[in-house]
């Protein structure tokens, strides 16, 4: 009885799905439902995505930027992201790349910077260069009370003992200052300037690096300068154990737009 009931139920469901099945309209590339009582599944975003998918070959960098910026949303300023596929083996520690890369044409979002220091002169210099939070014991108290309210964390060498007190809060977000990452030093003004004009990057489990390289309002010229800066930085930090081709591919995309494949050779002309 149970098998017969399930068979009848499947046949009825198939009839319902066949009655309300959507079809693809070839001219306007929109999803339309033939049933008059159901809502039309179409949007301008789907139309733009379908048009962008007609390009199969990778484009040079400038053409890819222009294609990425076309038909951008007007309601908000979308972020433009660069994804670079690297020939890395993430199982090797030296292949786990991470750090900061300076964007010469500006960052998509200016981060809030916190500075651990016990020297009054260093604190004054950090505030003069734009640091939002500066201190030692008072900064530790702020983190313990309010949590993490900043995106970059810097420190001078003598203040690392205060950093250790809140390492459990900073560690999961990758904010613990270290000399290897260039977030610990005595020239605190230069470190703050670097933090305010740079973005973080880190390889994921597939050897890819995702970096925001600007906003739609930046325009093609500024985005191109930032993309070239990211690529040149990745070439400088290339691990010595990589013997074959290092840059395998790249893709540009905005917040609500399709991915545009970029020819790697066009990013290495300079």
Automatic annotation (TrEMBL):
Q: Which Pfam families match?
A: Ribosomal_L1 (PF00687)
Q: Establish whether keyword Cell inner membrane is in the entry.
A: no
UniProt xrefs under InterPro entries: Ribosomal_uL1-like (IPR023674), Ribosomal_uL1/biogenesis (IPR028364), Ribosomal_uL1_3-a/b-sand (IPR016095)
* Keywords, in A-Z order: Ribonucleoprotein, Ribosomal protein
Its GO CC terms are: ribonucleoprotein complex; ribosome
Outline the subunit composition: Part of the 50S ribosomal subunit.
Q: What does this protein do?
A: Binds directly to 23S rRNA. Might be involved in E site tRNA release.
Q: Which family does it belong to?
A: Belongs to the universal ribosomal protein uL1 family.
Record's protein name: Large ribosomal subunit protein uL1c
Organism, scientific name: Cyanidioschyzon merolae (strain NIES-3377 / 10D) (Unicellular red alga)
